[in-house]
Amino acid sequence: MKITSARFVASLTDVRQLPTDGLPEIALVGRSNVGKSSLINKLCGKKNLAFISSTPGKTQALNYFLINESFYIVDLPGYGYARVPEHVKAGWSKLIENYLSNREQIKLVLHIVDARHEPTELDKMMAGWLDYFKIPYVIVITKIDKIARSKITKQVDMIKNAFGKLKYCQDFIIFSAITGVGKNELLSIIEKYISS
Ligand code: GDP
């Protein structure tokens, strides 16, 4: 699949505001600063489509991007940013929970993790949660350019092992918003799920 058009359509803070056009949705989850905006920009071939935030945790809404006039990429609020007050954090997780547990249009979730680190407890919880709600997802291991070539296999195995047994995980994909590695693979998977 080639992305020929991509535009930001809305930033929503309430599930009652979600689009009613029935188009398929690909949702992105991951901890704050993991590289979700960079991934969206890279996939769409646009530099500033998704704002690359210098303040982690700033995105507090569901950000809708209309792709090829035929499906949405939905960027969810990043989780796990420490410097946010508890009540704000609670609001975010409620929004994420409401959206993921009820939204039938979600065809696939891209669960983004950082190649440099072992998955956090929240990363593992998110995977467990997607399994619980029976939502298919791929785990995207991003910032792979930060790992020495000779260490990539070992690092990816470490991340896979740390997640343990997952039910609805369709695949692990290594990605870099810098080099573009993984971009075509990700686009193929998205294409498959939006037409399923
Ligand atoms: P978000 O908060 O998840 O949307 O994260 P951003 O896309 O804003 O990225 C957070 C930081 O990580 C920024 O400084 C990005 O330039 C950097 N970053 C994101 N993706 C990559 C990547 O694939 N490789 C490298 N080296 N840096 C990345």
TrEMBL record:
<dbReference type="InterPro" id="IPR030393">
    <property type="entry name" value="G_ENGB_dom"/>
</dbReference>
<feature type="domain" description="EngB-type G">
    <location>
        <begin position="22"/>
        <end position="196"/>
    </location>
</feature>
<keyword id="KW-0342">GTP-binding</keyword>
<keyword id="KW-0131">Cell cycle</keyword>
<dbReference type="InterPro" id="IPR027417">
    <property type="entry name" value="P-loop_NTPase"/>
</dbReference>
<comment type="function">
    <text>Necessary for normal cell division and for the maintenance of normal septation.</text>
</comment>
<dbReference type="Pfam" id="PF01926">
    <property type="entry name" value="MMR_HSR1"/>
</dbReference>
<dbReference type="GO" id="GO:0005525">
    <property type="term" value="F:GTP binding"/>
</dbReference>
<dbReference type="GO" id="GO:0005829">
    <property type="term" value="C:cytosol"/>
</dbReference>
<dbReference type="InterPro" id="IPR019987">
    <property type="entry name" value="GTP-bd_ribosome_bio_YsxC"/>
</dbReference>
<keyword id="KW-0460">Magnesium</keyword>
<dbReference type="GO" id="GO:0046872">
    <property type="term" value="F:metal ion binding"/>
</dbReference>
<protein>
    <recommendedName>
        <fullName>Probable GTP-binding protein EngB</fullName>
    </recommendedName>
</protein>
<keyword id="KW-0717">Septation</keyword>
<dbReference type="GO" id="GO:0000917">
    <property type="term" value="P:division septum assembly"/>
</dbReference>
<keyword id="KW-0479">Metal-binding</keyword>
<dbReference type="InterPro" id="IPR006073">
    <property type="entry name" value="GTP-bd"/>
</dbReference>
<comment type="similarity">
    <text>Belongs to the TRAFAC class TrmE-Era-EngA-EngB-Septin-like GTPase superfamily. EngB GTPase family.</text>
</comment>
<keyword id="KW-0132">Cell division</keyword>
<keyword id="KW-0547">Nucleotide-binding</keyword>
